[in-house]
């Protein structure tokens, strides 16, 4: 009981200031917590006995103390509960603070170095211009010149601050007021409609951090924001941000975006143009004028309204500019069809200049008008060919005098398939190869009017029949080629000699080993439309071969020439007389033969080609200005429904060539 009384006295002494000295004295006389409650007489008896033995005085105020003891018993359990809670709460807070401080220190040591942030080294890009000088494709990130806030159009920083971070000039990297406002707006809206990140936080996140939503990333973002604010001025932070942020379409930085969308420097942006770019920061893909022009204009109007709110412009000006904010002048909105050509070019660049990390500009041979016409002709042809089981097509058009590729369509839809059938697909050309046989005969002394038997022929058990199953008997070489007679062609090949045919093919540009069998003359060796275009260009060019190409010049960013196409042509491989005679014969093929659907309002020569079971259908032809090859078929080799080279491919050829030659004078072919 003595130990119990002692323990009870300690919390009682703490109540002196609250209960007074008398209450404290009464508490000291209490025998202990949990002791049985006694009557008023009990203390007297106990005191008497105690006094008899020890002479101790009876405590004063014992009557009142007994009443207060009941009150003490009601408060003490709460105190006993609070004491350990306070103790452990303090310890938890202390060690929690130590842990947080440790985490902050640890994350601080993980932060990247920011001192060279304003000296940004970036990967190189490749920009391609068409033959007329227009930029039409960019590979790699597109960057412009670094510009400071002082150098760029004043509308741009004003627009960015108005729509992204109005308190940017005043906060220390993190904006508690802006964060609270964003939270209130989002709660009121019931969804996230406004962000609380400052421009400094966005810079930290865009440059150094991943896009995961972990607590660790958020801590580093906050620390980086504080650090950036301590190391750079506000203008420097805004300049770094605007020179690095992504604006869509491969453009990084405001100068690249200005050149991409408006063909001008960031120094020269108008108010509406600056508002568009500032509005795109929220979502470069969503608010791109190429992706959704209407939504981009709506977003621009919102930015102009924000600029009016901060007093940069008046509301009337905002409404006036919003009605017609900008005029796009860059290569946005152009179809993806040229991507077959530009991918082909991009893959070749390292073979000319090696692997480089700096910016390069490539001047190509592409004619954007012809490219558009080619895409339209192929699209219309495939729309018609769908009912005939034709799923794919390719077209190549080049200048017969130089080999410069002017248009290239590698398939029905680049977005669906990036496989370039104009360059990569190797298919049997069929009767397109027959002119090689007739050219070998002309070089051997045969004339177009010489006669050949179009009758059944058998060679070592192989008997090639004509496409229609009929035979014309004795016919001229011109008739045999115009009507694409298989039997007559193979008979001519055997008389001229397969070795001579292979030799002519090699001089025309065939690099692959050709078959040695009798089927050589029927085009069983696979080739691409680009290969075929090169061969027919030699026919059109009077026997002088050309190399199909798409690159004229490659320059480094500073203007140094890294590569320039040599102007010297290849030596003549075919006699000009033989080539001219063959052109005359191929003109008859279009005028009165299997290629009559390809006829134009000017001299044109060409040849149809159809492989076995209607798997491939071709037309290759040329004028004095353009060589064009068209292939139609299916990627898996599925047979079409009686599609021949004289049908759908010839029609695509005609539609394209008619439009391509609009306004050009009629020129004679180099015939004999």
- Average pLDDT, rounded to a whole number, is 82
Task: Give the count of helical stretches.
Answer: 22
Name the poorly predicted regions: 1-72
Look up the CATH topology of the largest domain. Beta-lactamase
Structural class by sheet pairing and helices: alpha+beta
In spatial order, strands of the major sheet run 2-1-5-10-11
Strand content: 5-15%
Report what the structure shows.
This protein has three domains: 1-34 and 43-48 and 58-110, no CATH class; 141-323, Penicillin binding protein transpeptidase fold (Orthogonal Bundle); 376-548 and 572-660, Beta-lactamase (3-Layer(aba) Sandwich), CATH 3.40.710. The chain has 22 helices and 14 strands. It has helices spanning 2-13, 16-28, 41-54, 62-110, 155-164, 176-189, 199-208, 215-231, 234-244, 254-262, 271-280, 293-309, 315-323, 339-353, 368-385, 434-443, 477-482, 486-496, 498-508, 529-540, 576-592, 648-660; strands at 126-129, 135-139, 142-143, 251-252, 360-364, 392-398, 405-409, 451-454, 473-476, 551-556, 561-564, 605-610, 616-622, 627-633. The strands form four sheets. A five-stranded mixed sheet has the order 2-1-5-10-11, covered by helices on one side. Residues 1-72 have low confidence and may be disordered. InterPro entries: Beta-lactam/transpept-like, Glyco_trans_51, Glycosyltr_51/Transpeptidase, Lysozyme-like_dom_sf, PBP_transglycosylase, PCN-bd_Tpept. Residues 141-307 form the Glycosyl transferase family domain. This is Penicillin-binding protein 1A.
